[in-house]
Write a structure and sequence with these properties.
single chain; 433 residues; alpha/beta; Immunoglobulin-like; 4 domains; 6-stranded mixed beta sheet; 4-stranded antiparallel beta sheet; 11 helices; 18 strands
């Protein structure tokens, strides 16, 4: 009851003030009718406080997000269901769900009185324009009496989480060069074979059965070789995301880093839906195997929260990619790189992998003077040429480029043919090498 009295609204307090005025007037003028009015004015807020206080702890609430994972720019419907667990009806309730700033202003909803054991639902919609994982709730319910004299606030502790993933762009179905084919498919296997009997072999390891030694391959190679065990070959792809802060430009949802995150998510899901075993690696520590159970959701959840790294570097990224990577397809989404960093990326070709780079010219996200623009273009061109010479296929990504339009070019295995003329002109005219 004390807490209910502390919840008196301004109207309730004015009623008490009016009761005091009428009570003093009744004493001064000796009018009993004024005293009756004073008692009535004082009793109404007390009755309202008792009414609201009795229903305060007899409500249940549940929240449902439909869906709980949305893309950037998408909407989610939040459904609130409240039930009156008491035998007394409630008054009008004002609902306010607490939301982070990125999801917009806090919704305020009015729920009419609930009868005994009655339930009712209300809903609102949130829109997310920035990646991340956001807490929805707790729900604050303001209970009032029919006269608006008393208002109590109750906060339900339950919190739900809305995951805003990067935008996933549908990509055209094209065959990727250098893929490993799964068993039973028509695509050619990319596995080294030795001997006329087409037996796949590998180096002898301690404990191998000597009956599996392939003597013809052993004589040709000069070291002991054994037949590989029969195993279903599967298409494997590693998607590499460059999260270095120095490699990207721009701010907010239109920054070059957001383009890179969206591209990584789109490529990973496209390859996974086409039968690839997909792995996502970043230099900031993310290493997700999307082939595992629930891997797609885990991958998207990581990309929803990935941020620019202040301490990331290409050497660390190369080490992470080489760990547990043996051939297959490597697709890197890189920001600006130097010639030295391009040389470091050459190490990924040593595992026999087919390497494709989406090289973002993040300087095009800035308005640079003419001289600075020419210098930035030269540096970008030289880095792309370094990747080309090391065996990477390179596809340039300027500001405003659409991934769906670039994807067929990347899949053709053109080894960056769009760069060759530009590279030759840049190197011969600008650098003299």
């Amino acid at each position: 009851m004390r807490e209910a009295l502390r919840g008196l609204t301004s109207r309730g307090r004015w009623f008490f003030g009016g009761a005091a005025v009428f009570a003093v007037s009744a004493l001064i003028f000796g009018e009993k009718d004024l005293l009756r009015v004073a008692i009535l004015l004082a009793a109404l807020p007390l009755l309202a406080a008792a009414y609201v206080g009795r229903t305060r702890y007899k409500l249940s609430c549940s929240r449902t997000l439909q869906p709980h994972r949305v893309q950037v720019g998408g909407t989610s419907r939040v459904v609130l269901r409240l039930q009156n667990l008491s035998r007394l009806p409630t008054g009008t309730m004002l609902l306010e769900d607490r939301l982070p700033y990125a999801l917009g202003s806090r919704p305020r909803l009015v729920l009419e009185r609930l009868g005994p054991h009655q339930a009712s639902s209300v809903a609102y919609t949130v829109r997310a324009d920035v990646r991340g994982r956001y807490e929805v709730g707790p729900l604050v319910v303001r209970l009032t009496d029919p006269f608006g004299l008393c208002e109590l606030v109750r906060a339900f502790p339950s919190i739900d989480r809305l995951t805003v993933i990067p935008q996933v762009v549908p990509l055209p179905s094209v065959r990727m060069a250098g893929e490993y084919a799964g068993a039973g498919e028509s695509r050619a296997r990319s596995v080294a074979v030795h001997g006329e009997d087409d037996a796949a072999t590998r180096e002898y390891r301690y404990g191998d059965d000597l009956r599996r030694v392939h003597w013809r391959s052993t004589a040709r190679v000069g070291e002991l070789m054994v037949r590989r065990e029969e195993q279903p070959w599967e298409s494997r792809a590693t998607v590499v995301l460059d999260t270095r802060n120095l490699a990207h430009r721009g701010e907010g949802p239109t920054a070059s880093f957001e383009w890179a995150v969206s591209a990584a998510a789109s490529i990973a899901l496209h390859l996974r839906h086409n039968g690839y075993k997909v792995r996502l690696v970043t230099d900031s520590g993310i290493d997700v195997d999307a082939a595992e159970a629930g891997g797609e959701g885990i991958l998207l959840d990581h990309l929803a929260e990935v941020k620019l790294s202040q301490k990331g570097d290409i050497a660390t990224l190369v080490d992470r990619v080489k760990h547990r990577t043996d051939g297959g397809l490597i697709i890197g989404v890189f920001g600006m790189i130097t010639t030295h960093e391009a040389e470091l990326l050459t190490a990924l070709r040593g595992s026999g992998a087919t390497c494709l780079a989406l090289l973002i010219d993040s300087t095009t996200w800035l308005n640079l003077p003419t001289a600075a623009r020419e210098e930035a273009d030269q540096a970008h061109g030289v880095a792309a040429l370094g990747l080309l010479r090391s065996g990477w296929r390179v596809v340039g990504v300027p500001h405003g480029a659409k991934l769906a339009a670039l994807w067929p070019e990347a899949a053709r295995g053109s080894r960056g043919f769009t760069w060759r003329a530009a590279m030759a002109e840049t190197v011969s005219g600008g650098l003299g090498t």
